[in-house]
Amino acid sequence: MTDPVVETEPEELAVVEPVVEVEPAVEIEPVVEVESVVEGETVALPAARETVLKISGLVKRFDDKTAVAGIDLEIEAGSFFGIVGPNGAGKTTTLSMVTGLLRPDAGTVVVHGADVWANPVVAKRTMGVLPDRLRLFDRLTGAQLLYYSGILHGLEKSVVRSRSADLSAAFGLEDSLDRLVSDYSAGMTKKIAIAAAMIHSPRLLVLDEPFESVDPVSAANVIEILQKYVAAGGTVVMSSHTMNLIERICDSVAVVVNGAVLATGTMAEVRGDKSLEDRFVELAGGRKAAEGMEWLHKFSD
Ligand SMILES: Nc1ncnc2c1ncn2[C@@H]1O[C@H](COP(=O)(O)OP(=O)(O)OP(=O)(O)O)[C@@H](O)[C@H]1O
C-alpha cells in the first residue's frame, strides 16, 4: 500500500504566531442558577447539569474472563472525572467501549444523547479520544497527524492550521512538528495524541492514562489546558494510577475493581476523611505483604 499523501504546510504552521490559549470547547453553560421560592424567600439553586456521558449495564467478557461486569456511570457536563483502579480492573476495556473502539457484550453508552453503538457517527463527533497504547498513524509527522485529525472531523483547512499552531505551542511541540510521530519520545507521542484528540473542540474528552510518561513540567502544562477546557464547559473523563494527581485535579471519581464500580461520586464523597490513595487501597483489598521473597535478599554472586 502506498503511503497516504497528506497536504500539509508545515513551514506555514511554524511561522503562525503561537497562541497558548486553546480554543474553548463548544459552549455549554457550566452552572446555571435558577431562582426558587422557598417559604417566601427567593434563593438561588444550582440547576441540574446536563448529562454528557451515560454508561448503563456495560459488560465485556474475554473467553471466561469477565473484564467489565456491569458498569453504570453518569457523568455531568463540566466534570473532571477520574477513573482509578488496580491493574487489570477493567478501566481500559470500559473506556474502549465508551469510545466505540470495542463492542460491549451488553449495556449501552450514550454521549450527549447519541448511542455510541447505535449512532456512532453522531456520538463520535462530540468526543475526543486518547486511546490505550496510542493507536496512532505514527508514520505521519506531527503536523500531518494534527492536519488529518482536523480534516477528518470536518474542519476547514484554515481552522486546522490555526488550531494546529495553537496546540503545538501549548504542548511545546512546535519544533517537532516536521518529525515522524514514530520518532517521538513516549511523552511527546502522548502530547501530540492529546492535541489531536482536542483539535475539533469536542464536548467530551476521554483520555486513557494521559499523564503516563509525560514529564512533570509538560504534565502541569497539559493539566492547565484541560482545566481551562473544563472551566469553559468541556468534560474530561480520564483513567490514571496516579492517585495524588487524580485527587488534585478531578472533581469526581469512580473506583473500579474487578470490572465493577465500588465507589463513585464527588472526590469528597469517595475519599471521606482519608486520602484517595488510602481509600483506593482499602477498596482494592488492602496492601499485599511482600512475603516469600527471601531469596531476593541473598544475592546470587
Ligand atoms: N483483548 C483482550 N483479550 C483478553 N483479555 C483481555 C483483553 N483486554 C483486556 N483483557 C483482560 O481484561 C481485564 C481488564 O483489562 P483492562 O486492560 O481493561 O484493565 P485496566 O484496568 O485498564 O488495567 P491497567 O491499569 O493494568 O492498564 C484484564 O484481566 C485483562 O487481562
UniProtKB/TrEMBL annotation:
The keyword Transcription does not apply. It is found in: Cell membrane. Keywords: Antibiotic resistance, ATP-binding, Nucleotide-binding, Transport. Its main location: membrane. One of its GO terms (molecular function) is ATP hydrolysis activity. InterPro entries: AAA+_ATPase (IPR003593), ABC_transporter-like_ATP-bd (IPR003439), ABC_transporter_ATP-binding (IPR050763), P-loop_NTPase (IPR027417). It comes from the Bacteria. It holds the Pfam family ABC_tran. Residues 53-283 form the ABC transporter domain. It is a peripheral membrane protein. One of its GO terms (cellular component) is plasma membrane. CDD domains: ABC_DR_subfamily_A (cd03230). The keyword Iron does not apply. GO terms for biological process: response to antibiotic. This is ABC transporter ATP-binding protein. It comes from Conyzicola nivalis.
